[in-house]
């Protein structure tokens, strides 16, 4: 057993972890009591970001705690983290005080992005302190060491809390609820978790030779799976000339699958060739297989980028698409670099790949920081793109998704809507003005109309597009319950819902769908006892190619003994009765 951390450094880890937990406890209490900094989102987010991110970096990157380099790194990184959190807080600041809504979508992005960036920076910093340079062997060792350390630490804390849960339940059974109440108090949870986490981290880092053993086992298992990954990639690309690219574009998630496959191949290849100068010389067949896979690898990034580009060209930039472009860019850079290096050195010596990995690793960490600053914020780019498409006519005013800007783009989206609202264009276009006004007065992304508007029969009628042979009575509209699942989406004020009537086996049905492809479930009714009854939902299986709902064609039932299917144009649907409707039908049949 090899101890690599002194008692002094282990104590420093515990003190840092407990100190971090106490700061987080104070922030938690501030939120509960609605006092500063909870009342100032910019301060709250900035303090949270620094309180979580800075200790994480030191846990993974610092080795000897008395070194001046740790303090310098902490000051610089702490300032950067505070700035990033401040910007995220500004993005979440509610500019419309009467709306009661605060954007929080940027928190997940910031958390994930900074975790990856700090993970990379930590093993870069530790390697530099240990070797005096960015030695690749050291980088690889520290990346594995940090990843496994975090995994074991998470498992250790999880088991600790499971034991406390068992403790509380055992005493709860015999009527003693003291421990259950104690263990659920924030004043207990935060400091105890910090203490246990710091203690566990010291235990793990004092036994890093055991972590090296686990790493060796992982590399052996990865080497066994590497040929399978390469084979999957080659077979998939070989099948595309026969199937064509159209099935890829129709799925909507093909780009993600291809990027996952490319990322796994890149990771497995690096894990296998980590510490050996000629890792494939004893297996020429594997080297040839990997050579072919690496040469074909850029095709996955190109296809993923093409698929993403089609979406962007059709609908403009969104935060999700920009993140997709970000991932595609870096996987594409890794893939192109590996393919070029494989051409230059067909024996696949790892030394060439190591320099490329180091360069792109540093670039990735830097980029993950920059995209959370005002310089490259994806929310800003998305807001500018959506407004630009409206201005150049790519998006019609009646199709402008003002709600997306309001609820998905934070302050950037709200500012863009307010600028449009004050423009002469909005004054002249009543449709555009209504969509903007509706979004800005919304309290949530789903309930975007006031109850008074939702109760107006004429307003409700305007929310539906009707297929041929369908008429809406006032009684049907008045009976709609906006709180019902699916119906509340139609009451959002966007007029995207479509209704159509048809007869099937002597019964009248009214079903709904949407012009939006991501709305897969929508309500369905049946004419019973001289009125429409909500009986379940309609599931849309999809449409052929890029086809949508044909507003000139009624729904057509498809005769099927097992499934209630019907179609419209090139789209296929299925009616799915609710459990209560099925039970009622069985009772009626027995009577």
Automatic annotation (TrEMBL):
**Origin superkingdom:** Bacteria
Q: Does the keyword Membrane apply?
A: yes
Query: Keyword Membrane, does the record have it?
Result: yes
Q: Where are the membrane-spanning stretches?
A: 12-31, 43-62, 69-86, 106-125, 146-168, 188-204, 224-242, 248-269, 289-310, 322-344, 356-376
Q: For this UniProt record, give its keywords in alphabetical order, as a comma-separated list.
A: Membrane, Transmembrane, Transmembrane helix
What is the designated name of this protein?
A: DUF4153 domain-containing protein
